[in-house]
Design brief:
heterodimer; A: alpha/beta; Rossmann fold; 6-stranded mixed β-sheet; 23 helices; about 35% helix; about 20% strand; B: about 350 residues; two-stranded antiparallel ribbon; 12 helices; 2 strands; about 65% helix; about 5% strand
Chain lengths: ~550, ~350
């Protein structure tokens, strides 16, 4: 179906190839996952299949590509679009029309299909993706997951045999991502559609993939094969795979269900139970309701951030209701909940971007409800969801200096060079910020708000779009900041990341705190937020692969 | 409601606004537009206009009044006199000039509001379908631009907040660079993404035929004939000159029609014309007739109110005034369907 023979590609004005000597063959009806760190060439590889590379991008391509009998290098993307459907990362930025039906029909009208045929294809694709009720809706009124399904529908109308998706779940919360992946699996199984997708959040996608293409850092093909073989070979920090390695299982599980079967065998074959292993190692059985993380010790300190009876409404619709929250210095609190639960609103109220309509917010004992955003943000660093919105200077170092100028801090509490070194950006001080990788850009933005040396850090979904290496870097960075005594409050949908970093977890639902507790309590017993390890070993108290290491 | 009914509504509003200078009658039309705007807005999450309409109305009326008061020095009710010999500015500032300027502001606001409501009430797809196929690339650009406006508005607010949390405050013009640079870069990145997505979906703008040498020559010939006719008319005043000009226009129209005919593109759903469209069109056109057709029970003279030389209270024709509320007809229809 798809054949690459020694394919290499170099972008215009670049001396380093993005892809080197790639060869593989994919079969009809396969669901293939393309993995690799940021900058490994995943998106480039996908764009080679439909001819966007080199026709849209420019650049030098070598080798031979054949896609269902077509040569994308010789033919144009226009010719390939009836064979290959391509869905991009951000669905909102690929829409031309403002209404669902019009958007889906757009391509068919451009191909001058007769109205009856358009109507037939439109009905069929809407039914296939269960979008019948969305037909007349404005696209802006849809959620991210729904918009992604519209984007898929609009390319499926041309009846392609191959569907390519570039990080389709990166902008979605866990429930929407799961829903979308299930839709894709159904399309793959029921319609024999070949699906190729790239993704960073591997734990989500691995159970659905038939094969994996793993690209190395220099654009080489590092591994290709069944997910089990590939992930056993390449050391990716997926919780289930890490767990399997630590428990010395011969084969790695690809899904929680599979891991549960392995765990049953493991328990049966093991001479002693997991709980007993804990006792042997000098620890009692872990009681999920009695966590012994350092956060408990710090509760006696006066809180750095204190929120009392906070209320906020958007046009009369309540977003926050009587929220009470204390964060101690040196404590990391993770705020979780579904989209629209009020998490971002809470953070924006704390930094003054939204003025609380009820209740008080104290910073180090001082009421900050009437303080300006600039005044508050001298003491609280806030990193919004999209750090790109903060970056506009020519050099990384200038971004930090601009913040100091804004706050009129002639004597910087920390020199920009030193902070860049701490952030692992020492060698990038004179680079253009927007040329950096997603993780690096995020660290530049973090530097821009940390340069005033605030006492607290607030982060809104900082793991979005980050690969495993970048996530690990962020985790280490936040641990360092925590050890310096900074209070950290972060929002994330990434349960596995939260389990590794949190001292305390708060669950927000329709503007109210419905649950709070230690990570072990929440991530082992609160259903929507149970980690994969905890799902496999529900009674063990293990929530991350690191917990297993502690016990063994 | 059919988009042609909306076009009829728009034309009647514009015609009514151009037919009167009476502030009372213009205010009634503005009132109906205000009601229409509120109803149209209810169905839209994102308004297409990136600013609030009422403050814009006040700014427009104030600017028009101030401009006329400072540049037109007629009228008998003098507020004060600007001394010296400043060209245009020096002279008396009169109540009459302020009223005349405000009336211009009302009319401009009315034109602006009516187009805003028209945009809010029709989908982007419907608007671009009204544009001839020969201009399809242009129509598509308009469609994308209209879709981009609310996104840009949201993005600008996000950038403002992102900069505010770095202690950025907007005091001087140069302070806005930190807002506009990320906005510009972000918009360019989005444009590239959209272009890539459209290429991946096989979009080709069918513009080769329009931009071919043959096409350019024909359009140029049409323009040449039109301008020749106009020049002959100016120099000799010949009657047949108008015919030459019209022939030029006909050549251009014919060529665009021919291009449109040959552009391979289909429309999957044609709009239907319902009874409601007859009713709404009938009501608004009947209301418009009262502004132009002299009838025994109306007084058309009161529509041409002039505040100069001395401002008097404008007269009011109750029948024409009541008839102006008929411009609300599409709103009643929309309200009923939304129920």
């Amino acid at each position: 179906m798809i054949n690459f023979q020694n394919v290499g590609f170099t972008y215009p004005n670049s001396s380093k190839p993005a892809l080197r000597n790639i060869s593989f063959t994919l079969n009809r009806g396969e669901m293939v996952l393309v993995t690799g760190v940021s900058g490994s060439g995943k998106s480039t590889l996908l764009r080679c299949i439909n001819g966007l590379v080199p026709h849209f991008s420019g650049g030098m391509i070598s080798g031979k590509i054949m896609v269902d009998g077509h040569d994308p290098v010789k033919e144009s993307p226009k010719a390939l679009c009836q064979v290959v459907g391509f869905v991009f990362q951000d669905p909102e930025s690929q829409f031309v029309m403002d209404q669902v039906e019009a958007e889906i029909a757009f391509v068919l009208e451009n191909f001058a299909l007769p109205p009856e045929e358009i109507q037939k294809r439109l009905d069929s694709v809407l039914s296939l993706l269960k979008l019948e009720n969305f037909r007349g809706r404005p696209i802006t009124s849809l959620s991210g997951g729904e918009q992604q399904r519209i984007a898929i529908a609009s390319v499926l109308t041309l009846k392609p045999s191959i569907l390519i998706l570039d990080e389709p779940t990166s902008q979605l919360d866990p429930a929407s991502a799961e829903n979308l992946l299930q839709v894709l699996k159904d399309l793959n199984k029921n319609n024999n559609l070949t699906i190729i997708l790239s993704e960073h959040r591997l734990e989500r996608v691995i159970p659905y993939a038939d094969r994996v293409i793993h690209l190395g850092q220099q654009g080489f093909l590092k591994a290709l094969g069944h997910p089990r073989d590939v992930f056993q070979k390449i050391g990716v920090e997926v919780p289930l795979i890490e767990m399997a390695k630590k428990l010395k299982w011969e084969s790695v599980p690809l899904s929680v269900e599979e891991a549960r079967n392995y765990a049953r065998e493991y328990r049966a074959n093991s001479k002693i139970g997991i709980e007993n292993q804990a006792s042997i190692n000098g620890k009692n059985h872990i009681d999920p309701h009695n966590d012994s993380k350092p956060a408990v010790k710090t509760l006696k300190n006066p809180p750095f951030i204190q929120v009392t009876d906070l209320g906020f409404s958007y046009n009369g619709v309540p977003a926050l209701l009587d929220v009470n929250l204390d964060i101690q210095p040196g404590e990391t609190v993770v705020l979780m909940g579904e989209n629209g639960a009020g998490k971002s609103t809470l953070l924006r109220c704390i930094v003054g971007l939204l003025k609380p309509q009820q209740g008080k917010i104290f910073l180090n004992g001082e009421d900050i409800c009437r303080k300006s955003v600039a005044g508050i943000c001298k003491s609280i660093a806030y990193l919004p969801q999209d750090p790109n919105m903060m970056l506009f200077a020519d050099h990384v170092e200038d971004e930090l200096k601009i913040t100091l100028q804004n706050h009129r801090l002639d004597n910087a509490p920390i020199s920009p060079q030193k902070l860049l070194f701490q952030l692992g950006l020492a060698g990038k001080a004179h680079r253009y910020p927007r040329d950096l990788s997603t993780g690096e850009r995020q660290r530049v933005a973090l530097g821009a708000v940390l340069v005033t040396q605030p006492g607290a850090i607030l982060l809104d979904e900082p793991t979005r779009g980050l690969d495993y290496a970048a996530k690990k870097g962020l985790k280490d960075l936040l641990k360092d900041q925590q050890s310096e005594g900074k209070a950290i409050l972060l929002i994330t949908h990434d349960v596995e990341f939260a389990a590794q970093i949190a001292d305390r977890v708060i669950i927000l639902d329709t503007g109210k705190i419905i649950k709070q507790g230690s990570p072990k309590e929440i991530f082992s017993s609160f259903p929507p937020f149970i980690t994969q390890i905890s799902q496999v070993f529900p009674d063990s108290g293990w929530i991350t692969p690191q917990d297993i290491e502690e016990i063994r | 409601m059919n988009s042609f009914t909306w076009i009829i509504w728009l034309i009647t509003i514009l015609a009514a606004l151009s037919a009167t200078r009476n502030p009372l009658h213009i205010l009634i039309i503005l009132l109906t537009l205000g009601v229409m705007s509120r109803l149209a807005k209810k169905d839209q999450k994102d308004t297409l206009v990136p600013f609030s309409i009422f403050p814009f109305f006040l700014i427009l009326v104030f600017t028009a009044s101030a401009f006329n008061a400072l540049t037109s020095h007629f009228g008998s009710t003098i507020f004060f006199t600007i001394p010296g010999e400043i060209p245009l500015i020096s002279g008396s500032v009169t109540l009459e000039a302020v009223i005349y300027g405000a009336t211009n502001g009302f009319v401009l606001s009315g034109i602006f509001f009516s187009f805003t409501i028209f945009n809010q009430s029709l989908s982007v797809k419907t608007i671009i379908r009204m544009i001839p196929k020969a201009f399809y690339p242009l129509a598509l650009i308009i469609s994308i631009a209209i879709n981009f406006l609310p996104a840009i508005k949201r993005r600008l607010e996000e950038i403002r907040q992102a900069q505010a949390i770095r202690g950025h405050q907007l005091h001087h013009i140069k302070d806005y660079i930190s807002l506009f640079m990320p906005l510009l870069i972000d918009s360019l990145e989005r444009s590239m993404l959209l272009a890539e997505a459209m290429t991946a979906r096989g979009f080709i703008p069918h513009s080769q035929q329009q931009s071919s040498l043959k096409s350019r020559l024909i359009i140029f010939s049409g323009l040449l004939v039109f301008v020749s006719g106009w020049l002959i008319q100016l120099i000799n005043g010949n009657n047949y000159a108008l015919g030459i000009s019209l022939a030029g226009v006909a050549i251009i129209i014919f060529w665009f029609w021919w291009i449109s005919k040959n552009i391979p593109q289909s429309v999957y759903k044609r709009e239907e014309w319902h009874v409601q469209d007859w009713v709404v069109s009938g009501i608004v056109l009947s209301a418009l007739c009262l502004y132009f057709v002299p009838l025994p029970f109306t007084n058309l003279e009161i529509l041409s109110y002039d505040p100069y030389p001395t401002a008097l209270l404008p007269d009011f024709d109750a029948i024409i005034g009541c008839a102006s509320f008929c411009f609300l007809a599409p709103a009643f229809y929309q309200k009923r369907t939304s129920r």
